[in-house]
Amino acid sequence: MNSTAVTDLNSDDQVAQWRADFPILKTQVNGHPLVYLDNGATTQKPQVVIDAVSHYYENTNSNIHRGVHQLSELATAAYENGREQVRRFIGAASVKEVVFTRGTTESINLVANSWGMANLKAGDEVLVTEMEHHSNIVPWQMVTERTGALLKVVPINDAGEISLDDVRGLINDRTRMVAISQLSNALGTINPVKEVIEMAHQAGAIVLVDGAQAIAHIPVDMADLNCDFYAFSGHKIFGPTGTGVLYGKEALLEAMPPWQGGGDMIRIVRFEKSTWNDLPYKFEAGTPNIAGGIGLGVALDYVSDVGLEKIAAHETELLNYASRKLQELPGLKLIGTAKNRASIASFVLDQLHAHDLGTILDSEGIAIRAGHHCAMPVMQHYGVAATARASFAFYNTFSEVDRLMDGLNKAVEMFG
Prior knowledge:
Number of helices: 14
Structural class: alpha/beta
Shape: globular
Helix content: 40-55%
Strand content: 15-25%
CATH superfamily of the largest domain: Type I PLP-dependent aspartate aminotransferase-like (Major domain)
CATH class of the largest domain: Alpha Beta
């Protein structure tokens, strides 16, 4: 490891112990040990999560909520235990406030189509920021077009930050919804969401927080945050793909109509009229990702056992080290230099397209993400078509940052 790396917060032995929990990290790619720096796209899975998913399929595979036989009862208990593990992890008041979805995108679409269509009207305003993921822009575009409401945008500065003065200036008595990411997937910016929530509530507006990137890096507590909705994806926090959560305050969820119809979300079906199931099942039509829900609960308990404070401390050191090393490379520019930042290092390199960088690094066994990161307005702000993005998790090491730098130097030599 490079001698300039600071490792006071976590010893090499501690990180090695964490890495041992993730079997894929032993993989070779193109003849090199894998360096996985694409955690913003999806995280790797610890053995306990893999085992939990396998155990369900090998031992208790059955549909839930509908069966009286033993397998169904066991599967239902394990799935609902996953919901309780989510409730505990995010500090929700009740499991009624924990709706299982396929991910952040579906969670936001649920709110836009259920709460939005029931509450927005012509002249109302929905406020988003310029740094939002497409999943927190497009659903609001669709619902405002259908209702006649207006979409307003909080700008970012060149560091990739929003100004609370701008937020204050845009929130008014017509604002009905503020939808904001807690941590930008393209910039790594940590937004002052608690202050934004307070401003919005003072104006009588509802707040949805996109926690897709934040959930694995920042401790969250719904009672403390006091947002109205919070959305995240299981695969971003070491859980299975196709899993996600919509947290919603119970009173809001009770008042909202269902979004999708079908099995499990109903109480009584008549051709004349149907009535809906209790929360959270009113929003969970059809057979869910049962193994995924079980695995997500295990993943969250795993993260709790490691400790988000330890995770954040190690990742902060990694990001600071990587940012220093990246800026030493001639022709490289960091995209996103907010004072409050986590987990993400996005950059462009003179004369080299991000996709070329990604391909060269892959030949060295280094996985990064290259593209617009589903954040095209961010790319437009900086006048770039794409960025290269290295995104860190607690199992990454300083020596892996050094490997990244070796790969970038090789790319510069090849195209220099």
